[in-house]
Amino acid sequence: MKIYVFFVFLFLLGCSKKAEDKAKFTDAEVAELMLDSTQMARIRMDSIKEIDLNGFLKRQGFNFCDILKNINFIPLETTENSLISDVKDVLVTDSNIYICDSYQGGSIPIFDNYGHFIKRLKKGQGPDEILKLKNIAFDKENNELIVFHSHFFSYFTPNGVFKRRVKIPLNAYSFAVTPSGYLFYSINGMDNKHLNLSVEYQLLITDKSFKLESIALPYLYNQDLRLEGNTRYLALNNGMINITSKFNDTIYQYAGNNVIQAKKALNISQHEIPTQYLKGSYENLMPNLYHNNYFFFLGEYATNEVHDYFRISNFYTKIYVEIFRDKKTGNCIGGTDISIDRSLIPSLGFPISSQGSFFISYFLPGNDDMKLLTDKMIPQKMVEKLKKLTTDDNPVLIFYELKDFD
Questions:
Q1: Bridge-partner residues for 353, per DSSP?
Q2: Closest Cα partner for 268 from 50, 54, 60?
Q3: DSSP code, position 210
Q4: Residue 16: what are its φ and ψ, rounded to 5°?
């Protein structure tokens, strides 16, 4: 009798799950996608550049301050309403700074470009609130901040005044604004069964009304791509959308008109993971990553107008290779052990965003490095301001430019 009840329970649970999945999107919402007219995006390989990183796949150091050209600090104002728990992402526009934060389950504090607090978009289920924050983007053409959360886009003015909310008829991990619509990045395991064959692709390209115009980049491996890290797999700079994925050494760029351009191929062939492990189960892959000397790219990438940044992982040796590349010369500098002059810069987290020719990072104030700061590269007033900060204060954003690599 107990066995019968158990199977009845499983059946009812399965029915409930199917009903729940179906209820996420109505037939009318799915019809907005116009799936019958969806096409394959064109992949261009004619201008791809191979970047040989094999010389960096070992323990070696480099002095970060030797390549540092310019650095600016922006302390984010600390108030009762502006407290930041954990920086997940940073979006900088011509006027404001937006932080994707995990405070109280996910919210967005807004600051001006001097770090003065403006407003926080809070967690909640109201029309102007955020539930299950995914990521944010800024639509320059319409001068709107777009917040992707749960199954919705919420649109705000640059200073966070609510305008409208629209339900999105698909599931995605992150997104970016294109001139004619949106580019959504999906990952394995996301429930997009209503997209039919499109469920097998990472990139979903829509117009402004969410008609699914094209799809691209099929999943290469049957892996849970949420392995670790906060990368969004979409690195933006100067209007360009760069696309990465885990265990795939090619970096793509959206070229417009439903064209995807392969731009860079990272050559890390030494100690490369055998394809058989990547095509196997997640449970089979992980022990091999931790017990074999394999290097791999997990999609952690940032780019600005002048330089690229790559992070290569090795779970066996527990090392991460940080590499900067000069776009003009193609020269690379990096290593596993970074030396930093503490009188110039406190402990540095490597870039999570960019703006113009700057990479953007941050540090948590109140550590001993602050006592060593001098005015060699920083105005004396800023040095004094940074030294007054404590562990109770918000993070400090770091904007830094690098020298040319001759």
A1: 360
A2: 54
A3: -
A4: -65, -40
Q: Is 124 helix (H, G, I), strand (E, B) or coil?
A: coil
Residue found under tokens 């290779």 = 321
- Listing DSSP states for 39-62 in one string gives EEPEEE-TT-EEEE-GGGSS--EE
End-to-end CA distance of the chain: 77
d(CA 171, CA 378): 45
Specify the DSSP class assigned to residue 349.
P
How confident is the model over 84-109, as pLDDT tens digits? Answer: 988 889 999 999 999 998 876 778 99
Torsion of CA 132, 77, 70, 66, to 10 degrees: -80
User: What is the per-residue pLDDT across 195-218, written as a single tens digit (0 to 9) for each?
Assistant: 887 788 999 999 999 999 999 998
- The span from the CA of 164 to the CA of 145, in Å, is 11
Q: Tens of pLDDT along 253-269?
A: 999 999 999 999 999 98
Question: Tens digits of per-residue pLDDT, 228-257?
Answer: 556 789 998 888 999 998 889 999 999 999
Which candidate, 376, 360, 281, 401, places its Cα nearest to that of 76? 360
Separation in Å, CA 91 to CA 167, 270, 390, 397: 23, 35, 25, 11
Question: Residues 46-65: what's their mean pLDDT?
Answer: 93
Characterize the bridge pairing of strands 332-335 and 337-339.
unpaired
Distance of alpha carbon 126 from alpha carbon 347, whole angstroms = 39
Question: How many residues does the structure list for the chain?
Answer: 406
Tokens of 257: 């008109």
* Cα angle: 113, vertex 115, 121; to 5 degrees: 95
Place of tokens 């919420």: 154
